[in-house]
């Protein structure tokens, strides 16, 4: 019987894999391997029988995980180890990374000679627990970890760290430079943890908490160790960072807490940590802030956040939508509207969206709210507007929290189908924080959306979006110029030059433009002269409920103010 025949019979004797569980068996003398057909199909491998399968498989493993994988396999092939046990990310044939746990063992003969290396690979699905940029665990993984510690009644220390001047660095040096900074800082934080002793990963873990924020959670560190780590990182960030030969100085902010109250849920801990960062940034010049030092205002925020979360769970109580017209710069005719969410509930009153959206954006329930906004806005627009004006476009904001979720594509398309909303009448406005996403990932998502007829706009253009780089590299339809650029533009030559250049650049690239914040006829006239495509602002209407929106005259809104 040939080695391949023997290998096949042994393999088939224990091959009982499910769709997401694969088996492999390697003849250590010949280097010939047999792998599950499901694995071959999922990852686009050359075949079920392969020579040097370890090298072939290594090419599928994420570069960050590859070195450790290579070391383990090499130790087995050199006879230095009999076991392989590792969780890594592997790229399937669609180009997406999935999280896999691979376990294997060397099978020896009676004389102790190695015969086979056999094991299993368990596919856990798309590796969304890892952040695209930093390769650290995500904030969702962080919340799950905090929930586990609460359930186990384990005390822990948590340290939040924020990069204060990241936006300025990003704007000066570019998008990719900013990504490299986030990745470098995350790696350094991880190094500090790993060099602090020998312990299980769950006893001290590092997370990317969203945007420019990081978190360290430890059940073994004490308060002094947390302070030491923060001071060392602050010194490193100020004096020792060089990227692509460019030295930069980064200012940090920090907040920390010892959590021993198991009545507090993970969302309260997370929100409190972010508020501590705000106090560290805006009031304490980067001083490390313990959570329990937060003042009354911060306590009130936590109360409101709790109320917001309860309202989302209670069928979105208190939330409603307003619509603000978007008009042609040529003749002020109505072309569409932006849907804007509002929240009002006693005794809190009407809380401004620029506050509660920022508070909620890091909360898992934010995604539920975002789907409610999509569904409500589309249904309302179709019922009140499209039946008589089928060409009008509905703009809805979408954040990186939504796009980053694996289910976002299907959820959005399902809502479109459910409401039978024409995709060509929908424009998604990517909010400013989408700049933190991997550029290639974001580009692919935009291409997918546009393939379904959905338009895409960059919101807050020019504020913190590494604007020109994204304008060049992303296949967007429209840029929305922030109102800060046009405030008092009639009297400020500097703003006139900047806005005129942005509009000309967009026009040359075949991208439309919307200018927000148009409050006066003189502002409108300047932007009309510079060639803006569309305009939005109080000159035409403040955001109003749909019943008031349909009462607006559909033609010449701006001329009504002449």
What's the topology here?
Layout: H1 3-14, E1 21-27, E2 32-35, H2 37-43, E3 49-51, H3 53-58, H4 63-77, E4 83-91, E5 97-108, E6 114-126, H5 139-151, E7 156-163, H6 166-173, H7 175-194, E8 204-210, E9 213-218, H8 223-239, E10 241-243, E11 246-248, E12 252-259, H9 266-282, E13 288-290, H10 296-313, E14 319-328, E15 334-345, E16 349-351, H11 353-360, H12 365-386, E17 393-398, H13 400-403, H14 408-419, E18 426-430, H15 439-451, E19 455-461, H16 467-473, E20 478-481, H17 493-508, E21 512-515, H18 521-530, E22 534-535, H19 546-549
Parallel strand pairs: 12-13, 15-17, 17-18, 18-19, 19-20, 20-21, 21-22
Antiparallel strand pairs: 1-2, 1-6, 2-3, 4-5, 5-6, 7-9, 7-12, 8-9, 10-11, 14-15, 14-22, 15-16
Helix pairs in contact: 6-7, 9-10, 12-14
Textual characterization of the structure:
The protein has 562 residues and is of the alpha/beta class. The protein folds into three domains: 3-126, Beta-Lactamase (2-Layer Sandwich), CATH 3.30.450; 139-294, Alpha-Beta Plaits, CATH 3.30.70; 314-561, TIM Barrel (Alpha-Beta Barrel), CATH 3.20.20.450. It contains 19 helices and 22 strands. The strands form four sheets. It has an eight-stranded mixed β-barrel with strand order 14-15-17-18-19-20-21-22, surrounded by four helices. Helix 6 crosses helix 7 and helix 9 runs antiparallel to helix 10. The longest helix has 22 residues, at 365-386. The chain is globular, with a radius of gyration of 27 Å. The chain starts with a helix and ends in a 13-residue tail after the last helix. The relative contact order is 0.07. The model is unreliable at 293-298 (pLDDT under 50).
